[in-house]
Amino acid sequence: MSTLEVKDLHVSIDGKNILKGVNLTMKTGEIHAIMGPNGTGKSTLSEAIMGHPAYKVTQGEVLLNGENILELPVDERARAGLFLAMQYPAEIPGVTNAEFIRGAINARRPEDKPLSVRSFLKQLDKTMSVLDMTEEMADRYLNEGFSGGEKKRNEILQLMMIKPKFAILDEIDSGLDIDALKVVSRGVNQMRGPEFGSLIITHYQRLLNYIVPDVVHVMMGGRIVKQGGPELAKRLEDEGYAGLRDELGLDIKLVDEEA
């Protein structure tokens, strides 16, 4: 069992404080969801955990199995077992999907024991069939010319092939129709087990109807202000964030109220 722990994390970008003391602990075998209004810091948390250089950690720790990873570069965090499915995946011309995924897999293996091409292709074909992806997707350049739904499926394809300890899924449901949402959810659910944990960032309950979380965290004002089970997400869907904010006595202005 592995543990990912965020302790009193403060993060700023361009001199503006976004995260103001986030605390969160999760273990492999668990699926956690983070919900919250726009502008509260959900994506900032994911970028800070993975080490995006634009996000400056001013206080706190991110511990993977008790070791602070904040001084590690992005590639070493990935080798240690972290994975980020990005909200807006980048296009990389000249590098095929298959080349990228095999390279990522072998980067986490001993140099003298790379995954054979035959084994890789067998796993790739099987995984792509789970996600209803055509074979030609493997030979296309990474995300180049992909639709929004194709990019999201491709992120889950990478996740299922690389098999990290912890995956942060940043709004993988955005822009998906119901059929694509079911396919993406199927892939994440196949990963569930004692060696895998996921932190899902989402605005909407509908994703959590298909990937039922063990714990739901609510972020407001750069902090986690409440946590509970799946029923908390359903409450937010019904009542919105303002009611919870008022119940907790928080002095926070929601983005939708600023107009």
Automatic annotation (TrEMBL):
Keyword Lipid metabolism carried by entry: no
Source domain of life: Bacteria
First and last residue of the signal peptide: none
SUPFAM superfamilies recorded: P-loop containing nucleoside triphosphate hydrolases
Annotated InterPro entries: AAA+_ATPase (IPR003593), ABC_transporter-like_ATP-bd (IPR003439), ABC_transporter-like_CS (IPR017871), FeS-cluster_ATPase_SufC (IPR010230), P-loop_NTPase (IPR027417)
Name assigned to this protein: ABC transporter ATP-binding protein
Gene3D superfamilies: P-loop containing nucleotide triphosphate hydrolases (3.40.50.300)
Keywords: ATP-binding, Nucleotide-binding
Pfam families: ABC_tran
